[in-house]
Amino acid sequence: MSEAQPLYAKVKDHILENIRSGAWEAGRRVPSENELVESFRISRMTANRALRELTAEGFLSRVPGVGTFVKESPALSSLMELRNIAEEIAQRGHRYSSRLIRKGLVDANPALAEEFEDRALKQLFHIVIVHEENGVPVQLEDRHVNPSLVPDFLDHDFTETTPTAVLLAATPVDELEHTVEATLPTTEQQRLLNIAALEPCLALYRRSWSRARVATVVTLTYPASRYALYSRHRTNARGTFSQ
Amino acid sequence: MSEAQPLYAKVKDHILENIRSGAWEAGRRVPSENELVESFRISRMTANRALRELTAEGFLSRVPGVGTFVKESPALSSLMELRNIAEEIAQRGHRYSSRLIRKGLVDANPALAEEFEDRALKQLFHIVIVHEENGVPVQLEDRHVNPSLVPDFLDHDFTETTPTAVLLAATPVDELEHTVEATLPTTEQQRLLNIAALEPCLALYRRSWSRARVATVVTLTYPASRYALYSRHRTNARGTFSQ
DNA sequence: AAGTGGTCTAGACCACCAG
DNA sequence: TGGTGGTCTAGACCACTTT
C-alpha cells in the first residue's frame, strides 16, 4: 500500500495532517526550514520545496525574516457542493430511486491513467447508475474509482447508499475540479434517461482528490428539462474576487 | 521598470512569452532542462524549478524519459469566480474582441421587477454583447443593470472595458446566485453566435447583490463546442462539505 | 547577532524511454 | 546507450526581521 514517497511529499503530508486535524490552528507558526532539516534529516532545499509548494497551494503564508504560518482557510463557495442526490430529492419531498446499470472492474487505458494522474494504474472500478425522481430519470452517473484509495468500493449495494455517500465516508475530499458542458445525448443516454434525441443535457464532469491522489472521476448527465444546477452564496468578507 | 528578477522567473517568462505569442504551439516540445542550463547559464535545479512550476500552473506537461511539452489550453471558464472574460481569453494567449449589439434604457416589466426584487423599479439599463476569442463568438452576454446602483453604467464604452469590470469597480458584490442550464439556441442566438440550430448551449444565469439590492442580472450563453465552465478548488482544511 | 525565508550552484543517483 | 525528467544533497550568498 505505502508507495515510495518523495521526501518533500512526506514533509508536506506531515504538515497538512497537522492542519487538517486541527492541531495547528490558523496563524500558528510552522517549523522553519532549518527545523525541518533537523527533524526530518533532509537538506534545506527539500524542506524549502515542501513549504514553498504548500504556500502556493494556499495552506501556508511566509514572511521573509519572520517565519511560516498556517493560513486562514478561505470560505468555500458552494456552487458545486457534493450533494447527495438522494437527499436532495428527498428534501424536495419526492421519491428517490435508482437503477444500477453497470458495476465492475475495468482495465485502465492511457486516457484514464492520465485522468487519474497515475501512469501505473492498471484497473479501475466502474459503475453506471440512473438516479430517478418520482420514477423519472434525472441523472445518469458514470463513475470510475481508484481502487487503491477505496478498495472496498464494489462491496456496496448502491440501491441503498449512493456512491457519493460511500466515497465521502471512505476518503476525505481535498480538492475538486468541475467542468460543465452542454451536450446532446448519445443514443445510449437517450435510452437510459428516456429522453428525445434533441433534448439538450448538462454534463457535469468532476474529479476529486484525496491525499494528493485522484480518488474518483465522474460524469453526471442531466436532461435539461429536468434539472438545472443552482447555487447562491454570500461572498467572502474581503470581497476577494479575481480582477 | 525592470525589477531584479530571479533566474527561474526569467526562464518562466521566456517560455510563457513563446506560448502566449503563439510561437510555440500546443504539443510542441520545449527545451529540456539541460538545454535551458546551457542557454541560460543556470544550474539544472533552477531550470527544473521553472519547468516544474509552469507544469503545476497548467501550461506544460512533462513525460519522464521523453520531454516537456506545451499543453493544450482548453477554453474553460471558472464557475465560481467573476472572471473578466477579456482577461481570461488574454490569459490563454488568444485575441479578445467584442461586438456591442444593444445598449440602452428599457422599461421594466413585472418579470424584471421580480428578478430585481424591486416592484418600484421603472427602468433598467440593458446591454447585449457578443464576446469573441480569435474572432469566433464564444459568449453572448445579455445583461440588465439596476440604474440606482450604477447610474453611470451606460457612460462606458464596452469595447475597451467589459461590463463585468465596470460593475466590479462600481459596486461590491455581496451575494451571488447562479443557475446553469443546457439549452438549444433561439434563432437570434444562432445568428449572433454563428452556430447551428442543433448546437447545444450552456446558459449561465447570474444575479448579483450589492448592499442587499440586486445590482445586475445577466444571462451568459456559451456554445457547447466552444466553451465549458470550469472550477477547481481546494476544500477547506477541516473538510467541511455538506453531507 | 541570530534566525528567517529566497535563491542558486554543481554535483549526484534513479527510473524511464528512445534509437 | 544516451537523453529525459524526478529527486536530493551540502554547501553558499543575500535581504530581511527580531532580539
UniProtKB/TrEMBL annotation, chains A, B:
Keyword Translocase: no
GO BP of this protein: L-histidine metabolic process; negative regulation of DNA-templated transcription
PANTHER family from the UniProt entry: MANNOSYL-D-GLYCERATE TRANSPORT/METABOLISM SYSTEM REPRESSOR MNGR-RELATED, TRANSCRIPTIONAL REGULATOR PHNF-RELATED
UniProt GO molecular function: DNA binding; DNA-binding transcription factor activity
Pfam families: GntR, UTRA
Segments forming a coiled coil: none
Protein name (database record): Histidine utilization repressor
Keyword field: DNA-binding, Transcription, Transcription regulation
Gene transcribed to yield this protein: hutC
Entry annotated with the keyword GTP-binding: no
Species assigned in the record: Aestuariivirga litoralis
Domain HTH gntR-type, residue spans: 5-73
InterPro entries: Bact_HTH_transcr_reg (IPR050679), Chorismate_lyase_/UTRA_dom_sf (IPR028978), His_ut_repres (IPR010248), Tscrpt_reg_HTH_GntR (IPR000524), UTRA (IPR011663), WH-like_DNA-bd_sf (IPR036388), WH_DNA-bd_sf (IPR036390)
